[in-house]
Each structure stands twice: as C-alpha cells, then as structure tokens.
C-alpha cells in the first residue's frame, strides 16, 4: 500500500458538518452587506508579486516573511494573495470602476500567509472583505463600522466583541511622529526586543504593537502619536465618533492601534474578542486614501475592512451560537422494496423537492431489506421516513413514520406532499 498524503501544514479541510456553519456565516454576511448596497467582486488568487510589495508594503510582516511567492514557468514572480485589498484595488481600477465614481464592493475567499500555525492562525485562511471607494468623509467610515456591528448583532456576537478605534492621521503627521519616536527609542535601543530593534529602521510604528513587556515599559514615556495628528484628521475622527455614538455603537479608543499594513491613514479599527486567546482580532480595517494612487490609479479615497472567517467560526462554536436551522438536517428519508416501489420512490422524492425547496429529501440507494434501510433512516437523523413496499404500490399509498414519536400512518401517495408539509411546517 502506498503512503497516504496529508494536507499541507496550516491548510485545513472544511468537512461536512463544519461547512454548514461556514455557509451560515457567509450567507449572513452576504445578506447584511447587500442590504447596504455592497456588490461582490471576485479576483484571482494569484497576482504579480509586485502588487503586494507595492500595495501592502515592503517592510510589513506580510511582505517580509509571510508570502507564498514562486516563479511561473516563464520566470515571472507570482504570489498567492496574502490579503484582498491590493487585489481588489487592482481589479476595480483595471476595470475603470474607480475614477470619478463611488463603489461599494465585497469579496470572500482564501488568503495565504506563511505563519506559525496555531489556533486561529493558519497558512491558508479565509477572509471576507468589504471596501468602499471614492468617499473621503467620515460618514462612510461610520457606515462600514455600523454595518459590521449589524453583522455581529445578527450572529449573536455583538456583546462578545469590542470595537477599538484610533486615528493615525495623514502621512505627513505620521512621518513627523515616526521621526520623534525613532529619536526617542534609539536612546533605549538595547532595552527593546529583537523585532522592535529591527523595526526601528524599517517600520517603527509597529513597535507600538509589541507585546514585549520591556519594550512596553520603554514606550510609556515615548512621544504620543495623538500629539502629531493633523487638524483635519482630528475633525474626521471626531465626526466618526459622533456618528457612532448617535447610532449606539460602543467603542474604545486604543492609541497604540496602528495596524500592520502600510496603506492605512486616518481611521483604523479592530473588533476584538476575549474568547480566542492570542488570536483576538476577528475583523480589522481602516482608511487607505493613498493606496489607489500608489498602485498607479488616480487619487481615490477608500476605506474598508476584512474579517477572518476561521476565527468567527471558532467564536460561534465556542459560544454555542450556531442556530439549529443553520445545521445540516434531513427532513424526509425514503425507503422502498422491489422494482416498482423503487420507481415510485423516485416520483415521491422529486415531488417533495418540487414542493419544498428548503427540505432535504434523502432516497435510500442500493436496495436491501426494510430493516436495514430503516436503520439507515434512523442514523440519518431524518424527521420522517417514507416507506413504500409492493403492497403500497398496488394500493397507491405509503407508510409515513414519525422518527421522533415512532408513530406510523398510512398516507395516499397523492397526499404525501400536503401531509408532510402540514407536519413539518405546521
Ligand atoms: P494578526 O495581528 O492576528 O496577525 P493581521 O493584522 O495580520 O492579524 P489582517 O491582515 O488585518 O490581520 O487580516 C484581517 C483579519 O484576518 C484578522 O483580523 C484575522 O481575523 C484574520 N487573519 C489574519 N491572518 C490570519 C491567519 N494567518 N489565520 C487566520 N486568520 C487570519
Ligand atoms: Mg498577521
């Protein structure tokens, strides 16, 4: 026997039983975003490496050490997308959807990052992203956050997540802050953790994110980003907060929230939970007014966010928030004995599927005696079993067994649909 092959480390199969939870989540997101006028966009999983280098930023964790990059057969460098925003901008701009117009777009699908696999952190993971283009004022930032709050509410998660909010100002404000921060931190360089020492010259803002206690201690007396924020960004931030307050969306301001990616400016936010250990962020986003231009388009304001599906599924499971209706279920199991009854079983099963779109009707395949078949029906968890034998065919009837009570009744074949509709839909 040859050796069995395994999936790649950090890349998971989503098995039957789990997939219904994914479908429930994806359907709920799709319903919520379309109620705000967001339209789905789909783009390839592979792009030119250059797109992410320029879009995400050379000094980010993603580009520095997390990308799946390989040479195509003609020597071109390609990369499995590590996130969706850069691709979304590339696709929308290429199609001429960005210049002089507004767009509300969303996408869903797998992303790839070479990270250390652990609970809530994988090498292939899935995101749903929501992006808006052409709108520079704080009302669209607020709309996106209110949309996400509606989603958490619909999923029963609102009380289990916290909105953290910050403004990181315009590029010039961040540049002068960076200067001040680097001046200050250089004095204490030997007290910083290794990553932070490296970031001092590559991406100093990320040092604020450091989990290292010694680094955090040094940061206590560091200059505050808050003091460098330009007036317009401050006004933008205040308007955003006013709209959130008017809509009863609670938030906390987290001054050290800077986000890992280069393209953010002004608003940044994260929805975090205390239920998933270190992988606490289930949704993250912000404003990225410079990105479209950075990727070769016309200057276009933009704001968006992405949520991690695996973490949301974990959270729904941990909190036992998956509704019964979202789980796979079998309404009717059909069994038959003999050739004529088998043909009749197809007819009835098709009639039931015609009449009730939401039902799962399972026909037993492959024959066998009634005892064996009814055991299968039992194992399927079906609510009702429909039994057709040779006698029943002759009489034009079937037996319908309620699998919860064990009661069995005879029903005319012409009445099966109305009989079961009555029982199952009340
Ligand atoms: P983290 O700080 O957890 O690494 P990030 O800042 O790298 O997150 P983003 O690039 O903003 O994450 O992606 C948005 C969301 O996608 C995250 O909040 C998270 O829910 C999810 N996500 C990111 N990386 C992974 C991963 N490797 N596995 C599973 N989910 C992920
Ligand atoms: Mg990360």
TrEMBL record:
Superkingdom assignment: Bacteria
PROSITE patterns noted in UniProt: AA_TRNA_LIGASE_II (PS50862)
The EC number(s) this enzyme carries: 6.1.1.21
Keywords on record: Aminoacyl-tRNA synthetase, ATP-binding, Cytoplasm, Ligase, Nucleotide-binding, Protein biosynthesis
CDD domains assigned: HisRS-like_core, HisRS_anticodon
Family annotation (Pfam families): HGTP_anticodon, tRNA-synt_His
Reactions this protein catalyses: tRNA(His) + L-histidine + ATP = L-histidyl-tRNA(His) + AMP + diphosphate + H(+)
Residue intervals of the Aminoacyl-transfer RNA synthetases class-II family profile domain: 1-316
SUPFAM superfamilies: Class II aaRS ABD-related, Class II aaRS and biotin synthetases
Location of the protein in the cell: Cytoplasm
Membrane-crossing residue ranges in chain numbering: none
One function term, GO molecular function aspect: histidine-tRNA ligase activity
The protein's enzyme class: ligase
Chief location: cytoplasm
Protein family according to the UniProt entry: Belongs to the class-II aminoacyl-tRNA synthetase family.
Subunit structure: Homodimer.
Protein known as: Histidine--tRNA ligase
């Amino acid at each position: 026997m040859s050796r069995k092959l395994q999936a790649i480390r950090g890349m998971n199969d989503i098995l039957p039983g789990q997939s219904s939870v994914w479908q429930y989540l994806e359907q709920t997101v799709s319903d919520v975003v379309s109620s705000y006028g967001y339209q789905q966009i789909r783009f390839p999983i592979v792009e030119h490496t250059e797109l992410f280098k320029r879009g995400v930023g050379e000094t980010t964790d993603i580009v520095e050490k997390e990308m799946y990059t390989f040479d195509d057969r003609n020597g071109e460098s390609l990369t499995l997308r590590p996130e969706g925003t850069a691709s979304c901008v590339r696709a929308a701009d290429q199609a001429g959807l960005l210049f002089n117009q507004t767009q509300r777009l969303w996408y869903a699908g797998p992303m790839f990052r070479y990270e250390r696999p652990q609970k809530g952190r994988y090498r292939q993971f899935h995101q749903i992203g929501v992006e808006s283009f052409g709108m520079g004022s704080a009302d669209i930032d607020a709309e996106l956050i209110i949309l996400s709050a509606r989603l958490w509410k619909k999923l029963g998660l609102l009380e289990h997540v916290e909105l953290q909010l910050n403004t990181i100002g315009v590029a010039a404000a961040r540049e002068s802050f960076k200067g001040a921060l680097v001046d200050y931190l250089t004095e204490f360089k030997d007290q910083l953790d290794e990553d932070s020492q490296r970031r001092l010259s590559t991406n100093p803002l990320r040092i604020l994110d450091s989990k290292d206690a010694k680094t955090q201690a040094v940061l206590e007396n560091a200059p505050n980003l808050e003091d460098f924020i330009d007036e317009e960004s401050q006004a933008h931030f205040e308007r955003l907060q006013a709209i959130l307050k008017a809509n009863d969306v609670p938030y906390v301001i987290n001054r050290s929230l800077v986000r890992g990616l280069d393209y953010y400016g002004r608003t940044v936010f994260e929805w975090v939970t205390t239920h998933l250990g270190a992988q606490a962020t289930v949704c993250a986003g912000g404003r990225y007014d410079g990105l479209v231009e950075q990727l070769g388009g016309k200057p276009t304001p933009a704001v968006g966010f992405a949520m991690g599906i695996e973490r949301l599924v974990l959270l729904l499971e941990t909190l036992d928030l998956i509704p019964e209706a979202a789980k796979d279920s079998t309404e009717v199991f059909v069994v038959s004995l003999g050739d004529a009854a088998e043909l009749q079983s197809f007819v009835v099963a098709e009639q039931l599927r015609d009449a009730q779109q939401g039902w799962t009707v399972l026909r037993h395949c492959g024959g066998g005696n009634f005892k064996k078949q009814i055991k299968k029906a039992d194992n399927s968890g079906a609510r009702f079993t429909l039994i057709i034998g040779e006698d029943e065919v002759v009489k034009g009837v079937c037996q319908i067994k309620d699998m919860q009570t064990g009661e069995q009744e005879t029903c005319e074949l012409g009445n099966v649909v109305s009989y079961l509709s009555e029982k199952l839909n009340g």
